[in-house]
Every structure is written in structure tokens, then in C-alpha cells.
Fold this sequence. Notes:
This protein has 221 residues and is mainly α. 52% of the residues lie in helices and 0% in strands.
Amino acid sequence: xxxxxxxxxxxxxxxxxxxxxxxxxxxxxxxxxxxxxxxxxxxxxxxxxxxxxxxxxxxxxxxxxxxxxxxxxxxxxxxxxxxxxxxxxxxxxxxxxxxxxxxxxxxxxxxxxxxxxxxxxxxxxxxxxxxxxxxxxxxxxxxxxxxxxxxxxxxxxxxxxxxxxxxxxxxxxxxxxxxxxxxxxxxxxxxxxxxxxxxxxxxxxxxxxxxxxxxxxxxxx
Length: 221
């Protein structure tokens, strides 16, 4: 009896021990293991699209500039060289002008060269003559001035120069031009004489001459 009681008491103690241990959590049994957290995934940095190589633009040639936009592109017209004949007569005039002579001698040489020149050369020669001849020797070109067959260009130069001469040189030569039949300047010379003497003597050239001489005496330069 005593053995059975001791066994019963021992079993009771064991049961109580287990119950106490369970209550205290000592024998609570295996706890459920929480699933391990998945390792945090580190987001990879966003990858930018690969840079494309820079575009190389082909050089664009400049637009052609028209001559109107740039006057420097305008080609001057080709001027042909003067013909040999012109070179020769220009040289003959230059030889006279470049000589070591005084003005009256150069004027005389130009008068000697004048008949050998073409019309263009004669016009140029009398232009120099007009500058070389003094008032006292302007009558050296009377034969050219009063000749109706003298080229028009030569007469224009001589008459134009005569208008700038003193009255005592100008009026007598204008009278010679006025009475030269067919002279290109005849009408203009007569009109000028009328302004000075304030009379029109028609074709009475003797009366014209007397009127001009009287006016010059009354109106000396």
C-alpha cells in the first residue's frame, strides 16, 4: 500500500511539474519559427540609355554671292589697248611737251606737228596750244579759228578759249569768224558782237569793223 501511494504521489508530482513548467513557458514546446525575411533587394540604379556619338554635320558651302551683292566681284570691262596710230601721235605730242623748251617754242612746235595729226590728235594739240599761247600771241591760231573747214572739235576748243581772252583779242577775231561764210560759229559770233556794239549791221563788214574799233577805244581793257 505504501509503495503504491509513493508511486501515485511521484506521478502526481511529475504531472504537476510538467504543468508548472508549461505555465512558466519552460516546456512550452517548440515555437513556430517565423519565416525568415527575404533579403532586401537593392534596386539597381537606373541605367541611362547609352549615349549616341555626336552627330558630325557635313560642312555646308556658302551660298554664291551675286555680283550685285558684292561690287568687288564685278569684273571691269576689258579695255583694249589703243591702236598703234594713236600711240604714235600721242607720243609726238608728248615729245613736244616734255622737251626743255619754253612755252612759245612748244606752241610753235605743236603748230608744226598739227597738220600731221588725225582729228583726235588735233583736238588734243589745240588744247595744249590754248594753255601755251599768251594773249599777245593768240593770233598764231587765227588760220585755224577762221577756217570753216577746221574740224568742229578744234573750233570748239579755240572759241571756248577765245571767250576768256581780253576784249582787244576777242572782238576782232570774233568779227573774222562772223564774216567767214559757212563757219559753224558764225551766228554765235555775230550775236556776241551785237551785244557789245548794240547794233546790227547785217553783212556790212566794214561798218562792223568800225563799230568794233570804236567800242574798243571807248572801253579799253
